[in-house]
Amino acid sequence: MEETNLNNPTTVQNQSSNVDIRALNEKIQQESSFVELLTMEMDKVIIGQKHMTERLLIGLLSNGHILLEGVPGLAKTLAINTLAKTVDAKFSRVQFTPDLLPADVIGTMIYNQKQEAFTVKKGPIFANFVLADEINRAPAKVQSALLEAMQERQITIGEETFKLPEPFLVLATQNPVEQEGTYPLPEAQVDRFMLKVVLDYPKKEEEKLIIRNNISKSGFPSVNCVLKPEDILRARNVVKEVYMDEKIEQYIVDIVDATRNPEDYKLAEYKNLISFGGSPRASINLALAAKAYAFIKRRGYVIPEDVRAVCHDVLRHRIGLSYEAEAENITSEQIINGILNNVEIP
Predict the structure, then answer these.
(1) Contacts within 8 Å (CB) and 24+ apart, 143-152
(2) What is the pTM of this model?
(3) Is 47-241 assigned to CATH 2.60.260.20?
(4) pLDDT digits over 214-264, tens only?
């Protein structure tokens, strides 16, 4: 049987007579022109951390929430602030602390003496971009207050339900080092984050530029607003048009299935290391992220490399490690690497 080269738009076109890949490619290249502009604005302020900037864009284009994990000082909050400034949209920040209450996030009912009735006071969650800073510092009841907002895009206060503005994106940060006074996120909430992005220290040359930016006489660089909320909503619809071949869909299903049944993929040694694998939400998010990645690369179709590029960020927080894995210091990163090396690439 002849192999299909999914990197070649001509052979991809032959697989589906209903999809004109060349025309779609041209459309995607035209519609994704703002990506370069947005990246240039972000690069004015964020030195290095290209991976983080790219993942923020993927979340924005896929209607998915993002969890950023890294030690303090790696520009997590600055990156989110900068992204919000490039889009003409409402931004709010919630600093999570152990004494925070759910009402401080979603809002509450307040008694109005003049009207002799309770009125709703909306909380900071009613914004397009919500920065949940150090999310693991608040107790579970506050974190769970975000669940309805993240999944249903709505909030219930009293007996009233309010739709959240579009686009709506929760960008949370957490510090993995300091454990005192922190609360682990519930699994149900972690799964609501489309991507978990782990940040590392900048390179030496990048750090020099960071120092220059911060001590410059001309002041810290500022960014320009280059997008409107409606531009993002339109781009999201175009991202959904990115062509995904059935073989790529099967590849995604195989990768996620390997986290549940590793022995079926010659990975029997992982059976005792994984306590639970990815849910169908992992498969959906892997497909959406791969489409958004192809869009950012200005391509009208998904190739296996797109799936592999986003796989770690989509799956790292969706694989439960057993006590045995933790005892042997085996990470979810290593398990994902093993799966990608063993699952057959189309």
Answers:
(1) 143/183, 143/185, 143/186, 143/189, 144/102, 144/186, 144/189, 145/102, 145/105, 145/106, 146/105, 146/170, 146/189, 146/192, 147/188, 147/189, 147/192, 149/106, 149/125, 150/65, 150/189, 150/192, 150/193, 151/192
(2) 0.87
(3) no
(4) 888 777 788 889 988 889 999 999 999 999 999 999 999 999 999 999 999
